[in-house]
Write the structure tokens for this entry.
Amino acid sequence: QLAAQEAQLRAIKEAAEERDRMYEETARKLVIVENDLGRTEERAESAEIKVKQLEEQLHEVSGSLKSLEINEVQAASRESTYEDTIRDLNQKLKDAEKRADESESSTKSLLKENEKLEGALEKAKEDYNALNRELDATLTDMSAM
């Protein structure tokens, strides 16, 4: 019976030692998990700070985007106005060029007419002078008679 009790005692001691080893292993794992938890909490805090920074940047970028969209709408409106102005000015240019061509043509015609009239005037002056000379000659002949 003593041998049975000693065997039982050894089994209990072995079981106690196994439990102690398991306790130490669990305690060691607990320390590791607690350290991991600390690092994970630090990373989570860091990530939360980063998220807040990114949210602020997103808000700023969103504001900038809205401003750019407004500027784009205004620029498109100005572009449309400029295109209309360019179209109107091009039409005015074409009209002015047409009027200039017509005026140039009219000026050429008037210059030709003016040259003809000046030629006719010059001929009329020559005829008048010739008649005056002839009249003077006739008067001189009549006075001599």
In short: Residues 132 and 138 are 10 Å apart (CA to CA). The chain has a mean pLDDT of 95.
